[in-house]
Amino acid sequence: MNAPPTLGLVLAGGLARRVGGGDKVRTRIGGRSILQRVLERLSPQCAGVIINANGDPKRFADTGLQIVADSIPGFAGPLAGILAGLDWAAAHVPQIDYVASVPGDCPFLPRDLVRRLHEARHAAGAPLACARSGEWRHPVVALWPVALREDLRRALADEGLRKIESWTARHGVGHADWPAEPRDPFFNVNTPQDAARAEALAAEFPDL
Q1: Residue 21: left (phi > 0), alpha (psi -120 to 50), or beta?
Q2: By the 8 A CB rule, do 11 and 103 touch?
Q3: How far is CA 127 from CA 59, 83, 121, 187, 197, in A?
């Protein structure tokens, strides 16, 4: 199936304590920052891309992209970033019905991610879809209908819900599958050791 127009959302709002603070999306892998790699993979698949980040938005000025902060206070986790993306889409690109989210720390995202998320949603007859590699689900690598944003807002603000899969299970979610071996396309960089491993993967699999 042809994917409908979809807004890309890069979640870059984490505090990156395990890599010494700062923005881990700026960690360089194979000569390019993880953020550059994420944008190179996601942008061709989407009608546009925005970044969810808290703090000073000027630190991402070099991307030329819209920076959207959480509207739920207190660093409420990825669901708050997703809600911010859905709200921005509703206000600024109302013709777009879906947002595809990815974490800002995955340097090897698939080039067919958005299309396959839509196929998984359609096959499952569900409004939502997320990626899976091997036995591991990746609930942040997912497809979200803008129409569900008020339900998500209630879950976050009124219920204090924080776990992604607790909310997605209420609505139904399809899974788009990728193999985890010999390399996982959703490998993420959380520690200096992960960064070293990603550097080795980039060298071994330059097309990854």
Answers
A1: left
A2: yes
A3: 34, 16, 6, 26, 35
> How many residues appear in the chain?
208
Given a contact cutoff of 8 angstroms between Cβ atoms, the answer to whether 102 and 38 are in contact is yes
Please count the other Cβ atoms lying within 10 Å of the Cβ belonging to residue 129: 28
Report pLDDT digits (tens) over 136-192. Answer: 999 999 999 999 999 999 999 999 999 999 999 999 999 999 999 988 999 999 899
CATH of the domain at 90: 3.90.550.10
Angle at 87 between CA 162 and CA 97, to 5 degrees: 105
Q: How far is CA 98 from CA 49, 76, 118, 129, in A?
A: 12, 22, 9, 11
Please determine, for residue 20, whether its predicted confidence score (pLDDT) is greater than 60: no
Evaluate whether residue 1 is within a structural domain: no
DSSP string, 136-167: EEEEEEEEEEGGGHHHHHHHHHTT----HHHH
Q: Give domain status of residue 33, yes or no.
A: yes
The sheet carrying 48-52 orders its strands as 66-68, 48-52, 6-11, 98-103, 136-145, 128-133, 173-178
For residue 38, the enclosing domain spans: 6-204
Q: Is the peptide bond before 182 cis (omega within 30 degrees of 0)?
A: yes
Greatest pairwise CA separation for the chain in angstroms: 48
Looking at the 3D structure of the chain, how many domains does it have? 1
